[in-house]
Amino acid sequence: MKVGIIGTGYVGLPTGIGFAELGHIVICADNDVNKVQALNQGKITLYEKDAEKLLIKNIKSKKIYFTSSIKECVINSDVIIIAVGTPIVDTNINMSDMNGVLDVIKEITPHLNKYKLIAVKSTVAVGTCHNIETLIKKISPEAKFDVVSLPEFLREGFALYDFFNPDRIVAGVGSIKAKTIINKLYGPLLKKTKILFVNRQSSELIKYASNSFLAVKISFVNELANFCEKTKADINEVSKGLGLDKRIGSKFLSPGPGYGGSCFPKDTKSLVAMANKYNVDMPLIKTVIKENESRKKQISHRILDLIKKINKPKIAILGLAFKAGTDDCRESPAIDIIFELLKHNVSINAYDPQAMQTCFKILGNKIKYSNTIYDAVEDADILVVLTEWEQFKNIDLKKISLIMKHKNILDCRNILDYKKVLKYKFNYEYIGGRK
Ligand code: UDX
Description:
Blueprint: E1 2-6, H1 12-21, E2 25-29, H2 33-40, H3 51-60, E3 64-67, H4 70-75, E4 79-82, H5 99-108, E5 116-120, H6 128-139, E6 145-149, H7 159-164, E7 169-172, H8 176-185, E8 195-198, H9 200-228, H10 235-243, H11 264-277, H12 283-306, E9 314-318, H13 333-341, E10 347-351, H14 356-363, E11 368-369, H15 373-377, E12 382-385, H16 390-393, H17 397-403, E13 408-411, H18 418-423, E14 427-430, E15 433-434
Parallel strand pairs: 1-2, 1-4, 2-3, 4-5, 5-6, 7-8, 9-10, 9-12, 10-11, 12-13, 13-14
Antiparallel strand pairs: 14-15
Helix pairs in contact: 1-3, 9-11, 9-12, 11-12, 12-13
Uridine-5'-diphosphate-xylopyranose binds at residues 152-156, 211, 218, 252-254, 256, 259-261, 263-264, 322-323.
């Protein structure tokens, strides 16, 4: 099949590479000419495991190419996947903005030269696919098309793994024809995964519901961690015990500095705002949003408390990305924590294996960026781990104990081996306890 993808961000690009790898011919459109040029040369524009390798492979076999022309993309495709962002632009209403998606629809409609399936992968408000259908019919009454909701569940950093090994594929469809095309699109994956066909509104809501539920899980474990800190209970053990119950499941029970990224903060807020439009209150999700916001302040104050006796303290931050495996700093807890710390006459040296450039776009020269973990830590009064990168788990604690000024560690991802930490006589605190 010929698959057009509009938008080559964290969703569109891995999806495009994935469908090319499945054997389809993929044409990706993006209005950023420089990005299109780089991608056509096989240069990946974001950090995602295995993406560059598979991109180059599929460019060589002519399965994928990039264009800045939406017309070229649409005319040459049987299926058009919309993968543009739906950010919250007005923080008073907190609703994801659908204008980007609707603008794309207006642009593609004049080029619907034959029947096309329009699949909406962008996270859109419940009812958007229906609105898109109405809009296209209004602009071009003779156009032949179906609109389907095809939410994405790819995790950043594991996007290609998730693409090839999905727990489920959800498709919101309104016609048999659309269903047949979706089955063909995912054909090779159907040996191991089922497609759940539902109505379009349900499909749109499943995306918000999944992310909000996971946000609840994380917030729940973070709340328990606060309690553990005042008792001898250890959150790592509690979390393990909870997760062994198959009804609960062990995933998304790692305590931390709060959830971040482009999805959880946005989708929880949007769900509340959407429900509010229908006069439905969502007090549970509202509380989760509020607690996640205040969590980052709590962590900043915990850091400051540990170094309160030190004049102009030097803080080493390990990890800027909102989680490991990505260079994405959108809604990263590290960024909010740093902003809060900077209000208190401290200096910050940070290191992240992938996210320093993206972080620089937000924080600029407000902090120093180090080339290695050890440069960041030298002379520091406290070391704070904020992202769970694999390489942080194996840091040379002996070396660090010799180069730090004061041996304080706050491990906000509970990744360090506390036995080793104690061997080198650090004052070690983590989420849900201290040793
Ligand atoms: C999420 C969804 O998982 C994915 O299905 C959807 O399509 C996009 O949004 P992503 O934003 O890439 O994916 O990150 P995810 O791995 O879900 O983590 C989200 C946040 O929760 C991160 O800040 C992470 O550090 C935090 N988290 C996750 C925890 O604090 N504890 C956990 O146990 C798991």
